[in-house]
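Weekly modeling sync, notes
Attendees: S.R. (lead), two postdocs, one rotation student

Agenda item 3: backlog of single-chain predictions. S.R. asked that every request posted to the team notebook include the full sequence so nobody has to chase files. The rotation student volunteered to paste the first one in as an example of the format we agreed on. Action items at the bottom.

Example entry:
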Amino acid sequence: MKNKWAIILGCSTGHGAAISKQLASEGYGIIGFHLDRGAIKKEAKELEKEIASINNTKVKFWNENAADKEVMLKRIPEIVSLVGDGKLKLLMHSIAFGSTTNFFKPTPVRQRQMDMTQHVMAHCLIYWTQAILNEKLFTSGSRILGLTSEGSYKAMEGYGPVGVAKASLEAVIRQIGWELGKRGITANTIQAGITPTRALTKISEDWEDWIETTKKRNPMKRVTTPKDVAGLVSLLMSEKADFVNCSTIFCDGGEHRSL
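Predicted structure, as returned to the notebook:
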């Protein structure tokens, strides 16, 4: 299929950016959403230009909140127009935005923060999938992917709301895959290891220590990179992965198996 497209929710940096470039190099048109200001906004524009040079200008980025239903409804008709007679082969959830605090001390999480984190990092994927199905953009062999972490099943300082959202994302994707599998549409989560991205710096002030500890802990003695994750996404796009569904796939060099 020549006219194939991918939507990346959270495309400007880290895993989303690496996945966008990898798929663009394989001929995919890239539709990306990010929500950035200042220097990062400039980086996103440069990334869009870079992708355009890779895949013959088959790219469109919007600097808008992809978790906002009004934004989604506004952009869906434009996405339909961009895809044209092609098909959407990937819907990727790579949004890393949530409240990094504890449930109790020192700063108890508020309901508004929990609700926002849950919606942005998990629930909004349900509504994106519904909207895309309504437009018949998916085809047999289309993939729905999301990024999870060890925090979905381990407790960490300052990671409570995000950990709950990651566990929810896994459940959301598992259910999507269960319901859509009969159409040949699969849904899986990817658990990356500790990765030095901008999102990691927002989780903890001790992120540099996390990286050094991970290098010692990981069987391969290094941290995960966005390129590692992009490579796995590329593998999962192959028709050879058509029977991989409702699963969490680890891309961490065995990190989750080590204490």
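Discussion: group reviewed the output briefly. The radius of gyration is 18 Å.
Action items: rotation student to repeat for the remaining queue; S.R. to check formatting next week.
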